[in-house]
Amino acid sequence: AQSVTQLDSQVPVFEEAPVELRCNYSSSVSVYLFWYVQYPNQGLQLLLKYLSGSTLVKGINGFEAEFNKSQTSFHLRKPSVHISDTAEYFCAVSHTGTASKLTFGTGTRLQVTL
Amino acid sequence: NAGVTQTPKFQVLKTGQSMTLQCAQDMNHNSMYWYRQDPGMGLRLIYYSASEGTTDKGEVPNGYNVSRLNKREFSLRLESAAPSQTSVYFCASSEQGKETQYFGPGTRLLVL
Fold first, then answer.
1. CA A92 to CA A49: how far, in whole Å?
2. Among candidates A71, A90, A87, which has minimal Cα distance to A24?
3. Minimal C-alpha gap between A33 and chain B (Å)
4. Collapsed DSSP state (helix, strand, coil) of residue A63
5. Chain A residues with CB inside 8 Å of B35's CB?
6. What does the buried/exposed string (b/e) look like for A17-30 if buried means 16 or more CB atoms within 10 Å of the residue's CB?
7. Are A42 and B98 a contacting pair at CB < 8 A?
8. What is the pLDDT confidence band of residue B51, given thresholds at 50, 70 and 90?
9. How far apart (Å, rounded) are the C-alpha atoms in residues A67 and A75?
10. What is the DSSP track for B13-71?
11. What angle do CA A72, A75, A78 make, to 5 degrees?
C-alpha cells in the first residue's frame, strides 16, 4: 500500500516571499508523483507531475518540485508567491503499474497575505 | 470542451433519502473516478471505472453504488443517505493508462 504525508496543514506566508510545501510518500514500488491545487469552491487542477527523468519538475504558475528518492519526498516550491496563490495544495502518488489510481495527502492550506 | 461536469452543485438530503450524483466528461476518456473530500482527510477514492462496462471499489465504497452508463457518464448513487456521507464529491476522468486526472467542480452534499 502507498501513502502520502503532508505534515503542514496550514502555511501562512507574506506576498513575494518564498514558500515550500512538504510532501513525503511511502511505497514499496516505483511511483508517479503529483501536486494538485484547489482554489476556493473549485475542483482540483494539476500543478505538476513527476513520471520519470529529471528530478526537478516545473509546473504552472511558477511552481516547481523536486523528487528525492532517497528521502521519499516531493516538496513543492515557489520563489515568490502572490496573493492569487492562496489555495489548498494536495500531493498525490500512484503506482507506475496502476497509473491512474491516486492516493492523496491531507492537503496544505497556503495563505498568502500582504 | 466543458471537461468534466457534475450535477447538482449542492444538495441537502434527510437521513434515509436516496439520490444520484451525475458526472459527464467530453474528453473521450476511458477511465472515470468518484472521490469524496472531507476536512483534514484529503480526497478518498470511492469507486472507479477503468473502462466502459467495468467498475471497481476504491478506498471507501460502503454506502455507495455506481453506474458507468456509457463512455461519457459515470453516476454515483446513495441508496439511503447517512449524516456520515455529508461531504464534497468530486468526479474525475483520465485517458486509460495516462496519469493525469481531470476533476469536475464538485457536488456539496449535506445529509441532515
1. 9
2. A71
3. 9
4. coil
5. 104
6. eebebbbbbebeee
7. no
8. confident
9. 7
10. E-TT--EEEEEEESS--SEEEEEEEETTTEEEEEEEESSTT--EE-S--TT-EEEE-SS
11. 165
Mutation target vs A (from B59, B87, B101; most A CBs, 10 A cutoff):
B101
Work out the percent of chain A whose per-residue pLDDT is above 70: 96
Pairwise CB contact (< 8 Å): B90 & A100: no
Amino acid (1-letter code) at residue A87? A
- Closest residue by Cα to residue B99 from A93, A17, A84, A75: A93
Question: With 70 as the cut, is the pLDDT of residue A63 above it?
Answer: yes
Distance of alpha carbon B91 from the chain centroid: 4
The C-alpha angle B44, A28, A103, rounded to 5 degrees, equals 15
Is the distance from CB of A32 to CB of A49 less than 8 angstroms?
yes
* Spatial separation of the C-alpha atoms in residues A107 and A11, rounded to whole Å: 11
Q: In this predicted model, what pLDDT tens digit does every residue of A73-92 receive, in sequence order?
A: 999 999 999 999 999 999 99
Q: Choose among B42, B48, B100: nearest Cβ to A101.
A: B48
Which of B35, B43, B47 is the best mutation test for A, with the most CBs of A within 10 A? B43
